[in-house]
Write a structure and sequence with these properties.
nine-stranded mixed beta sheet; single chain; Spore Coat Polysaccharide Biosynthesis Protein SpsA, Chain A
Length: about 325
């Protein structure tokens, strides 16, 4: 498999504390007999940092490389410093609390290797939540499926592709990327904005400028929604995150940082002036913010059909999701 070839592919896991989840993720990769490079990019502290430092020895059957950074390093700076140390043409960013589907990831790598027009490839994503308590019988854990729409952006013209991405946003973050363009995207994003939401918007928009973004109609990644996740913690009344972001006194500055950076990049890549492209970015962003507030996430017929496949317990999607859920239930510290 190409995902086992270090010259072609590395699985990059940014880590920050979260030892129980990382242990589960590495155990799952071992369960899958994953033979490709697993790169831990870490800025944890205390016992979490010590666990990451021991991972290569504790998992001798996985090809683990570990890069550790000061706790105060920014996320994107840590990621750039790690990616610069790798030789792989393609990398997949993988959260420490998620699960990959190797066969689908393999097909993403195959696409990027054979078609230089693409900068990013991914498939559909399933997100589940596990909950103890009132919603479940005594001693039982309830399982729910949370919509997590993904989209492709395959317009031939770079600016049109970028605008389509902004208006119909689906983050490119946890996807398979060409490594060198990803480094460029992270550097440009870090220089422009530090807001946790706008850096996701900006890095994804830059990826759309760099090349086409493919989304296969198959499950390639399974996420767990939980209160201890990065987004879960940020959503606890923090004006740096939705839904309170638009009430932040810094919202206008965050948006101008995003807009200015994109205008500059479009001017350099496509020769279009800010006066021409700026109003079009504004119009697309209105659509983006409307989606954030109005919950228009399942207006994509392909996504609706994908979700329906989980209703069939014999479908490939249902079997893969059940495997990830059953695996998670063996790790009570993760729910």
């Amino acid at each position: 498999m190409q995902i086992h070839d270090a010259k072609l592919f590395s699985l990059v896991i940014p880590t920050f504390d979260g030892t129980p989840f990382l242990k589960r993720a590495l155990d799952y990769l071992r369960h899958l007999s994953f033979a490709g490079p697993v790169v831990l990019s870490d800025n944890s502290a205390g016992e979490h940092r010590e666990f990451v430092a021991r991972c290569a020895d504790q998992y001798p059957d996985l090809r683990i490389e570990t890069y550790q950074f000061p706790r105060e390093v920014s996320f994107l700076d840590k990621l750039v410093a790690t990616l610069e140390k790798l030789d792989s043409r393609c990398v997949m960013l993988h959260a420490h609390d998620d699960f990959m589907v190797p066969a689908a990831v393999e097909r993403c790598v195959e696409l990027l290797v054979r078609d230089a027009r693409y900068s990013v490839a991914r498939g559909r994503v399933a997100m589940f939540a596990l909950e103890r308590g009132a919603k479940s019988a005594a001693g039982q854990v309830s399982v729910s499926l949370i919509p997590h729409p993904m989209r492709g952006y395959e317009q031939d013209e770079a600016v049109e592709r970028m605008l389509a991405h902004i208006e119909n946003y689906a983050s490119t973050f946890y996807s398979v990327h060409r490594r060198e363009p990803l480094i460029e995207s992270c550097r440009a994003t870090e220089a422009a904005t530090r807001n946790v939401i706008f850096f996701q918007y900006l890095s994804s928009a830059i990826a759309a400028l760099q090349g086409k973004i493919h989304c296969a109609d198959e499950l390639f990644y399974i996420r767990q929604g939980h209160a201890d996740s990065w987004s879960g913690q940020l959503k606890r009344g923090d004006p740096e995150h939705w839904p309170l972001l638009i009430t932040s006194p810094h919202f206008s500055r965050y948006y101008q940082e995003f807009r200015t950076a994109l205008c500059k990049l479009v001017a350099g890549k496509c020769g279009k002036a800010a006066a021409e492209i700026g109003p079009r970015i504004d119009a697309a962003a209105v659509g983006l913010f409307r989606r954030g507030y109005c919950g228009r996430e399942l207006d994509n017929p392909q996504e609706v059909n994908f979700m329906r496949r989980f209703d069939d317990p014999h479908s490939v999607e249902s079997r893969l999701l059940k495997t990830a859920v059953d695996f998670s239930l063996r790790y009570p510290e993760t729910y």
